[in-house]
Amino acid sequence: MMRQGIKAAICFLAAVLLTFAGLDRWYGAAKENRGYSFLLEDPLSLDEALELAEQNQKALEKAKEEEASEEGIEFVLWGQQEGQILSEPDYGKRTEADILYCSGDANLLFAGQNLADGNGGGCFLDEETALKLFGTANAEGREVKLQEKTFRVKGILTGISSTMAISVTRQWITENTVQTNENSQDERSIDHIYVPKSCGKTAAEAGTLLRNSYGLNGQMMDMELLIGISGALLLFVPMGLYLTYAAWAFREIRRGTPIRTNRSSKGSRRKEAESLGLAAAQALLLAAVTWMACRFFLGILQIPADYLPTKWSDFSFWSSLFREKAENIRILLGGEKGAMEWKVLEQLGEAAILGALAFLLFLAGRIAFLKGKKTREEKTANRTS
């Protein structure tokens, strides 16, 4: 019985620690999800994307000067070429990376990083790619070749992998025009738009504004629902632990007192210590899961406004919302994803793995707990008989 109690306590404690680690990964993904991503139905050329970005920038500057509430929002248009070969000119080192073309304020995609200087032959590399090409992540000022064109590294991106980012400007387009004939196309196109949540609008409002003001029709790649579902699933383990403790405490209360042994015998003192230890472990678990639940529901989980109906009696809202969000998740999982989406999805994947391991450990602890309970009841019955 003592052995089963210790095994159950160890499994429960390990499950809690893994759940904490999973919630930490989940929280990182939630923080990275700083905006709304839309997949454009009609991809734009680099020239078209740059024209729209310039138009929006002028509108925002005018609204700021006049202190008016213009129907405009910050956004950045971007497209990606996957699996391009980069090389280092001096020693011929080569590696593969995705090329990210940004039209507009590229800093919106990479929080805390300065991508302002993207004209001419400038580019930005992630640390991993810089290490492969130059043997060091401190590669600013070095040169890299892409399709026989030389770019100077203006900065290093952190938190993503295998990415070369280029901020598209008029000068850059002039110097990097790809000559095509009538039977071929420039493969570099812009098919994504990113709007930061700091614009103060919901995803639906942002999509409507982009469509009405700029003629940009896009399908949302919904991260919100996926993050919310994964966070809720991670709470299964702590909630299960909470119910396990509640059932144990209720059973002990019904029996009258948690410790019913005679202190005069060595065996009784051992049983008393076991009961006290198990009670202390369960109490600590209860405090931990209560704290996690409160932190999750009060401090982390925020339901977006477009997830709530204007009238609670509007029952058709929920069915249409489910269909819309299911389609958004399908687009997210099946569509082309950039470094930002992959980073969030990778963290959610790590959280899912940790959550699954925590759930398995919880089940193992629960089985050990029930075995100990059954053994104790059998011994009690034998003593009674």
Describe this structure in a few short sentences.
The protein has 385 residues and is an alpha+beta fold.
Helices and strands in order:
Elements lengths: L1 H31 L2 E10 L1 H21 L9 E12 L6 E11 L17 E5 H8 L8 E4 L2 E9 L5 E5 L2 H6 L14 E7 L6 H12 L3 E3 L3 H11 L1 H20 L10 H35 L15 H19 L4 H46 L1
Parallel strand pairs: 3-7, 4-6
Antiparallel strand pairs: 1-8, 1-9, 2-3, 2-5, 2-8, 4-7, 5-6
Walk me through what this model shows:
- This protein has 385 residues and is α+β, with helices and mostly antiparallel strands.
- Helices cover 54% and strands 17% of the residues.
- The protein has ten helices and nine strands.
- It has a six-stranded mixed β-barrel.
- Helix 1 runs antiparallel to helix 10.
- The longest helix has 46 residues, at 339-384.
- It is elongated.
- The model is unreliable at 180-185 and 256-264 (pLDDT under 50).
Mean pLDDT: 77
- Could you say which overall geometry the principal axes of the C-alpha atoms support? elongated
Largest sheet: 6 strands, mixed, barrel
Q: What series of H and E elements makes up the topology?
A: HEHEEEHEEEHEHEHHHHH
Low-confidence stretches: 180-185, 256-264
**Helical stretch count?**
10
How much helicity do the residues have?
A: 40-55%
As laid out across the biggest beta sheet, the strand order is 2-3-7-4-6-5
Gap from first CA to last CA:
20 Å
Give the structural class: alpha+beta
Radius of gyration: 29 Å
Strand fraction equals: 15-25%
Say how many strands there are: 9
